[in-house]
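If you are new to this repository, start here. Below is one unmodified record pulled from the training split, so you can see the exact layout before writing a loader.
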Amino acid sequence: MANIKSQKKRILTNAKAAERNKAVKSELKTRSKNAVNAIGTASGEESLRLAVKRLDMAAAKRVIHKNQAARRKSRLMKKINTAG
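And here is the target side for that same chain:
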């Protein structure tokens, strides 16, 4: 354990950020999976919209890199366009 006060605080804030980022990344996976599973159904378009929205939000909050968000959206769209 660190002896320096600022480092103790950094450890706590890093743990909070890691927990928050883990939740966001988990949600991204869930939303993407739901969008792929909903291809061709009535809720397919809505689930795709939510997945893209969450990817954009994660990139804006810098949980993931903006290029990673673009790549994931591109792959998601490609899956949906080839299936539909």
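Two things worth knowing about this chain: The first helix runs from residue 5 to 37. Residues 44-84 form one domain.
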